[in-house]
């Protein structure tokens, strides 16, 4: 199973008495952070969405963390050693405590990793041989003995991890919440299924601790964790999350001083650029997130499995004007994208060029070309013996207003450019959407996928036969072999050959129109002058608040 990051334009905000002010009106050195969607789960073995991962990372440290430039640096692991063959990591833990006073030990990682693989939830795959390559992870995920997993506690402060193959980005991967520890004694004291459902059932070792949380709530409150190993470096006393879905409201609140850091899009960006004062506060950050259409190819699915036909999928992909989407509907600095890996992401370690730098590489199958799209459609009609197609497009309607605008534009473009094709929009709450995309209950789905680590594989592994929570129901033996060769096979240790092979895999994916890439998302952020130190990352946790300072 694969990771799944919901579409989420996260809005960071602060509540103060006036724009650019200091502490909040309630007194105290606290932030108020807005999310555009609810947190689904604080159990790191179960959560799959960006908002949930972010809150977990606020409260728990892993072995490593990312610095302001996105590079891995020590967190709970004060240092680590790597064997000559790159297949054994030995992490040396610093003195750190859980919020209840218990020491953080190597056994906490062993317990958490074994539990994740044994539960075999959607994110267990990151331990396996398409990503982390932890020894025996795939076997444990399929029901094997968790004690065979390649993670052991040599002693309380020494964690040894054995891999099936070298993983060049393994240290950065250790900053991702799925690899975080869980205090086994605390976990075992709880009722079954209750972990992470309240402040009382969630234990922190990181910069902040929960003070108020219920699953699905619109308000989450955190305070500074005085037991944190690096508490002296945390300047704020805490903060709260508040779910907000309208960027119109966010802009208004920023202008009147209620909110001090907000994400905006569409007309709000144009307004901010034209406003002398607001333009000084406007910054744009690449999120590394790819927005795309997922095509469900299951022949047994809706409408007689029409989307199992490659020409119908190609017709839809080439009927979409991506430049119009980003310029007229997203309008936050996002970039039209014609590749399965987002732009300005995953630089080559040798020449520095981004993997998807050539956006015309697959223009024969991914473009905006109405004549070409209609030729694909005519082929589909002949092959399927049908002249009309009625398809549903599902999306989460509580994850910001941009998604609504985008799906409406896609519907209009496809129906205008492809006579006989009808797109029925099906909005639904985020939780229902997640359930549908992972249970084969859709035709088309608007998907946002954020990278876990800065390598093309974080996207390309999604479409292996056994690799994705989103049920496109596509399988290709040649594609699977390339990905396997690049992870644990013959190409794993050959950087240049691996890089070239990943392009071969991407070509197979796009020639078969498994997805229709749309755009690489950006965050247009208004930040008041009194706020510094928010770290924005293109991979892993997209925002980190532990270094925030208020002037």
Provide a concise account of the structure shown:
By secondary structure, this protein is α+β, with helices and mostly antiparallel strands. It has helices spanning 50-59, 106-119, 137-141, 170-173, 184-188, 247-256, 267-274, 276-281, 302-305, 310-318, 322-330, 370-384, 401-417, 430-437, 457-460, 477-487, 495-511; strands spanning 30-35, 64-66, 72-74, 77-82, 88-93, 151-155, 158-162, 208-212, 219-224, 238-243, 261-264, 282-295, 335-336, 389-396, 421-428, 444-449, 515-527, 531-532, 535-536, 543-544, 549-550. The chain is built from 17 helices and 21 strands.
Descriptive notes:
- With 551 residues, this protein is an alpha+beta fold.
- Among the domains are: 61-188, Alpha-Beta Complex (Dipeptide-binding Protein, domain 1); 287-522, Roll (Dipeptide-binding Protein, domain 3), CATH 3.10.105.
- The protein is 28% helix and 21% strand.
- The chain is built from 17 helices and 21 strands.
- Strands 11, 12, 13, 14, 15, 16 and 17 form a 7-stranded mixed sheet that branches. A 4-stranded mixed sheet has the order 1-10-9-8, with helices on one face.
- Strand 4 and strand 5 form a beta hairpin.
- Helix 10 (310-318) runs antiparallel to helix 12 (370-384).
- The chain is globular.
- It starts with 29 loop residues before the first strand and ends with a strand.
- The model is unreliable at 1-27 (pLDDT under 50).
């Amino acid at each position: 199973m694969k990771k799944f990051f919901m579409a989420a334009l996260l809005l960071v905000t602060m509540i103060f008495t006036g724009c650019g002010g200091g502490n909040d009106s309630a007194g105290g050195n606290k932030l108020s952070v807005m999310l555009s969607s609810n947190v689904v789960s604080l159990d790191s073995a179960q959560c799959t969405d960006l908002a949930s991962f972010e809150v977990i990372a606020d409260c728990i440290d892993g072995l490593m963390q990312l610095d302001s430039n996105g590079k891995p640096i020590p967190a709970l692991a004060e240092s680590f050693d790597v064997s000559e063959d790159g297949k054994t990591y030995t992490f040396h833990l610093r003195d750190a405590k859980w919020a209840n006073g218990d020491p953080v030990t190597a056994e906490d990682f062993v317990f958490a990793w074994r539990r994740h693989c044994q539960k075999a939830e959607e994110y267990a795959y990151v331990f396996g041989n398409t990503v982390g390559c932890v020894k025996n992870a795939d076997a444990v995920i399929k029901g094997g003995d968790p004690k065979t997993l390649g993670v052991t506690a040599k002693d309380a402060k020494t964690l040894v991890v054995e891999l099936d193959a070298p993983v060049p980005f393994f240290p950065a991967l250790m900053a991702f919440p799925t690899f975080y520890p869980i205090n086994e004694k605390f976990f075992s004291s709880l009722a079954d299924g209750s972990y992470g459902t309240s402040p009382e059932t969630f234990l922190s070792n990181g910069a902040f601790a929960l003070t108020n949380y219920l699953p699905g709530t619109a308000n989450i409150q955190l305070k500074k964790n005085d037991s944190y190993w690096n508490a002296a470096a945390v300047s704020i006393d805490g903060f709260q999350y508040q779910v907000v879905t309208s960027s119109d409201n966010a802009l208004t609140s920023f202008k009147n001083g209620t909110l001090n850091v907000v994400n905006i899009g569409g007309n709000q960006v144009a307004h901010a650029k034209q406003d002398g004062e607001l333009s000084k506060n406007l910054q744009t950050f690449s999120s590394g997130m790819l927005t795309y259409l997922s095509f469900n190819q299951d022949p047994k699915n809706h409408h007689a499995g029409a989307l199992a036909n490659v020409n119908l999928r190609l017709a839809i992909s080439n009927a979409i004007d991506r430049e119009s989407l980003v310029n007229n509907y997203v309008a936050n600095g996002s970039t039209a994208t014609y590749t399965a890996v987002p732009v300005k992401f995953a630089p080559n370690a040798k020449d520095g060029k981004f993997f998807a730098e050539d956006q015309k590489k697959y223009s024969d199958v991914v473009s905006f070309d109405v004549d070409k799209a209609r030729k694909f459609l005519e082929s589909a009609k002949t092959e399927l013996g049908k002249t009309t197609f009625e398809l549903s497009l599902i999306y989460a309607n509580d994850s910001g207003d941009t998604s609504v605008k985008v799906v409406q534009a896609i519907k209009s473009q496809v129906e205008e450019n492809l006579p006989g094709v009808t797109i029925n929009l099906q909005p639904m709450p985020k939780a229902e959407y997640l359930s549908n995309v992972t249970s084969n209950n859709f035709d088309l789905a608007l998907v946002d996928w954020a990278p876990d680590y800065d390598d093309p594989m974080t996207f390309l592994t999604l479409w292996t036969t056994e690799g994705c929570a989103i049920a496109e129901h596509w399988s290709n033996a040649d594609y699977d072999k390339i990905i396997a060769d690049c992870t644990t096979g013959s190409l794993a240790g050959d950087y240049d050959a691996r890089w070239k092979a990943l392009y071969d895999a991407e070509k197979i994916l796009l020639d078969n129109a498994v997805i229709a890439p749309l755009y690489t998302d950006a965050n247009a952020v208004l930040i008041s002058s009194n706020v510094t130190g928010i770290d924005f990352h293109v991979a892993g946790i997209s925002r980190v608040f532990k270094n925030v300072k208020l002037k």
